[in-house]
Amino acid sequence: MAAESAESEDSWFDIPGALKYLKTNKTTLYDCMKDGRLPFYYIKGTHQRRIKKVDLDALLTPGKPGDEELSDSM
Q1: Can you give the pTM of this predicted structure?
Q2: Could you state, in order of their start, the residue ranges of all structural domains in the chain?
């Protein structure tokens, strides 16, 4: 079981996989990469980006009571 946990933490996503995992749109994902909130890596010699699962998880923060008043469509 420990091997499964380590494997999932070391998981890498391409852009479509990261979008699906976060259930967000391309603009939001690229904005997070552009402003430094989301580290990403290039496959050497290509323009293909890869993102670590732990870095995607780090973008998410717990909500607080009262946050339900905010719109998710921002």
Answers
A1: 0.76
A2: 8-60
